[in-house]
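Quick note —
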Amino acid sequence: MPVMITSDAITWNAPDDEHPARAASQRSYSAVAKGDLAEWLTVYAEDAVLEDPVGPSMFDPEGRGHRGHAGISAFWEKAIAPIATFEFEISDSFANPGSNTCANIGRIRTSFPDGSHTTTDLIMVYVVDEEGRVTSMKAYWEPDRTMASFTPADG
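Predicted structure written out below.
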């Protein structure tokens, strides 16, 4: 049964039972929304791989993913630090009991310091280890669709 949870930056309108991968995804969104890199890194295992988006992109031209805390920190500087605010809206989440994986369906609105913004529709897949730390995060979204949503500050 979907549960509606709302904070200033996160709207969770999806199942919300106890699940380690789902909990890790929520911690990740919270840290990003607060702009807290140190907190965000605590969500990820030392050898984690982050692919956001999956495949070659402006953040990862070779499409190999960002590896370990150093790679994930570099991704933060390119993709997260320049954003003024993030608003996460999770509409569904799939996490089978006994698994270490969840897939969240949602939308992220990013606002830039000048007031312009974009909206990204995506699916995010989280895999966690025994301690509940993310070992793999894959975000499936299309940069061209996100850029097509660009709205200038006065728009």
